[in-house]
Specification:
heterodimer; A: 338 residues; two-stranded antiparallel sheet; 72% helix; B: 372 residues; mainly alpha; two-stranded antiparallel ribbon; 3% strand
């Protein structure tokens, strides 16, 4: 998951380390310049959600080289779990204007949803993927498609095929003025909460023992097993975290859009996967960057009147990237990815 | 048991020996016999009570169309080992190709028969266009690219409404005809049935011949060990492109037939769910085994389109309030999902596995004398 590539010259190394901040800066400036403040905030919000989902894809791919096809649907289930917890368990109906109460409700909602989704993710790993770890590549991929179908249609069965409303706890009217434009606090809240989660994830992966186990397992599973890393446990933790983040994305999606539906997972899952590939699959910082990039492309397309083509543009981008730069923008830790 | 079966099959030995030598003719005879037997079967209870013979024949036609798609996808997945998740896109391209040149929408009315070939050519062209840049990628990346392509095609068909009439699709597509002899109609399913069965037999013969050819052996080699194949002088990219092109052209041809059968094409007919049901048929039937895959697809289609509906009526008769509320058609895709997962876990080689695949999926057994 190192960003620095194998460059020997000092200039090259400097460029290597500075590549991430530089590209983020260039990309934000470009986005703001082209889209203007309103659309910029929209794109950042959408990007935050994509990034959270993309992290799950990239982590699982990094560690067991499986495109977890069901991950988009785990995100969708997360949005339904959040809806259920928020409206049925916590009894929310609309926005909460009492600030301390709002804070507590949102925190509880996040904690419960992340917990439930993490367990679901670990369960899926245990039942559907672990028995196939030594099987031919195609087998777990097809299983993942099967899991995706099961999740999607169970949700459709329980909640119906129509759009379901989710209580928007943060009042939409709250906003601040930025250079003459009204920026809703809700958007800022979404961006802030996902950035916090992403930073926490980075710290977890780079600073903790378990994080180190995850990194070594993704580099060489057998060698790290010999060094005493519990592989099964590490892979399960990866799924716990990835699905938990998808659950958080589900919460955020519900708060922001105020609705969800059973077919949400497929399209947004595909876009999040595109984001992971764009950033360099296996690279967590790259996945976050890719998520924002995809959102900018999509919001840009609709800002210029091609909203209906957004999906097609994103998938074309995916094909182009896979063909010309399969290692993604930031590159991943191995060269034989393609 | 085996002695009885040997004794029983003894008189047929010359017949079997003959068909082993002349397999293409054997397939032709087998398909012909089945295509006569199936409609006869619908005259017998319990099948005659479900729907009229004409409706059955219509269902058999669609099931055979579906089975042809499965055979085509099997070339890509089962033979060459490339996971194509956007197969419905080529099906769509074939259908729209015919719709463009044989409908009131464009005002052009070209005859059906040459367009059957044109559909295949269009499919192959797009297969190569998509495959050429992407087949260098690793297997699971390819799956995602094809998935993306499978999404782009319906989105484009839906949004380019100047050319495709968007969501409404193109209707009133010409039915095939043999000038002066036979005009296909919507009310008489028999001519279409005959056409589809003939095409089915042709495609199956073609695939078997391909499998035994140099190309087929190349596909085997790539699937088993790409590196070894490449070191032995196989041009891997060309071979993969051939598999892609063959699969895509079959989907294109079948797309033309399907458009001519139901006389309307809409973007919704070619959603991801179509690619997945064909994939499910391939996996269930047994990847790599053409007859198994075709049978799997045929049976799955009949099961989901007829038996599941019957299940609904059956349950209504029991008058149990809880069960009455369940629409078993809603569960169709949950069933797909569960079956896909269980098959991969318990029997990854499929119901009718290809002989070679059985060995591939069998776990290594370590005995006293080491690896067996």
């Amino acid at each position: 998951m190192a960003t620095a590539s194998v460059t020997s010259s000092t200039a090259g190394r400097l460029l290597g380390t500075a590549r991430l901040p530089l590209s983020i800066f260039a990309f934000l400036a470009l986005g703001l310049g082209v889209l203007g403040i309103d659309q910029f905030v929209n794109a950042m919000t959408l990007g935050a959600i994509y990034a959270l989902v993309a992290l799950g894809y990239t982590m699982v791919y990094g560690i067991i080289e499986l495109i977890n096809f069901a991950h988009g649907d785990v995100f969708m289930v997360g949005s339904f779990v959040a809806m259920f917890i928020s409206s049925s368990l916590l009894g929310n109906e609309g926005s909460i204007t009492n600030v301390p109460l709002l804070g507590v409700s949102v925190l509880v909602l996040f904690a419960l949803t992340i917990g439930v989704m993490a367990l679901l993710g670990a369960l899926i790993e245990r039942l559907a993927y672990r028995p196939l770890r030594r099987a031919p590549k195609l087998a777990p991929l097809i299983t993942a498609i099967g899991v995706s179908f099961i999740l999607q249609n169970l949700i459709q069965f329980f909640f119906g095929p129509t759009i379901v409303t989710v209580p928007q706890l943060v009042p939409i009217e709250w906003s601040i003025q930025v250079s003459g434009s009204r920026v809703p606090l809700l958007n800022l809240f979404v961006i802030a909460s996902s950035v916090i989660l992403m930073v926490a994830l980075q710290l977890f992966i780079s600073r903790t023992r378990t994080g180190r186990a995850m990194r070594t397992t993704s580099m060489d599973r057998d060698a790290s097993s010999l060094m005493g890393v519990n592989i099964n446990r590490t892979i399960m933790i990866t799924f716990l975290i990835g699905s938990g983040l998808a659950g958080a994305a589900g919460v955020v999606h519900g708060l922001y859009y105020g609705n969800t539906n059973y077919s949400l997972g497929f399209q947004s899952g595909l876009k999040a996967f595109t984001a992971a590939v764009l950033g360099g699959i296996g690279n967590t910082a790259g996945a976050a960057l890719g998520g924002f990039l995809i959102a900018f492309v999509e919001v840009g397309a609709s800002a210029f009147g091609y909203g209906r083509w957004g999906g097609a543009v994103v998938f074309s981008l995916l094909v182009i990237f896979l063909v010309f730069r399969p290692t993604g923008l930031l590159g991943s830790h191995t060269g034989d990815r393609a | 048991m085996s002695r009885i079966s040997t004794a029983l099959s003894a008189p047929f030995a010359p017949v079997r020996a003959y068909f082993r030598k002349h397999r293409s003719f054997g397939i032709f005879v087998g398909v012909a016999l089945l295509s006569i037997a199936l409609p006869l079967l619908t005259r017998v209870p319990p099948f005659d009570g479900i729907q009229s013979t004409n409706a059955w024949v219509n269902a058999f036609t669609t099931a055979a169309i579906y089975a042809m798609l499965a055979m085509g996808l099997n070339v890509v997945i089962g033979f060459a080992g490339l996971l194509d998740l956007g197969y419905a896109a080529f099906f769509a391209l074939g259908g729209y190709t015919y719709a463009f040149v044989a409908s009131p929408f464009t005002g052009v009315h070209l005859p059906f028969w040459p367009m059957l070939l044109a559909g295949g050519v269009v499919g192959a062209i797009f297969g190569v266009l998509l495959g050429a840049p992407t087949l260098r990628l690793r297997g699971d990346y390819l799956a995602i690219v094809t998935l993306g392509f499978g999404e782009i095609v319906p989105i484009t068909l839906m949004n380019a409404d100047k050319f495709t009439d968007g969501v409404n699709g193109i209707g009133g597509i010409d039915k095939p005809s043999i000038p002066g002899i036979l005009q296909f109609t919507l009310t008489n399913p028999w001519p279409m049935y005959g056409l589809v069965i003939a095409l089915f037999a042709l495609i199956m013969i073609m695939i078997y011949r391909l499998q035994d050819s140099r190309i087929g052996r190349t596909w085997d080699a790539i699937r088993e060990d790409e590196l070894a194949a490449e070191s032995s002088g196989v041009n891997v990219v060309i071979a993969k492109l051939q598999a892609f092109a063959v699969g895509a052209s079959i989907a294109g041809i079948v797309g033309v037939v399907n458009a001519a059968k139901i006389t309307i094409v809409t973007p919704d007919q070619f959603r991801f769910a179509v690619s997945i049901s064909v994939l499910a048929a391939v996996v269930l039937g047994g990847m790599g085994n053409t007859i198994g895959v075709a049978t799997g697809a045929f049976v799955i289609y009949l099961f989901q389109s007829i038996l599941l509906k019957q299940l609904n009526t059956l349950v209504e008769n029991f008058n149990i309030p809880v069960l009455n509320q369940i629409d078993f058609l809603d569960f169709q895709y949950v069933l797909y999902g569960i079956v896909l997962v269980l098959m991969m876990l318990k029997r990854p080689q499929g119901i009718f596995p290809a002989r070679r695949r059985m060995r591939e999926f069998a776990p290594l057994k370590i005995g006293k004398r080491g690896l067996k």
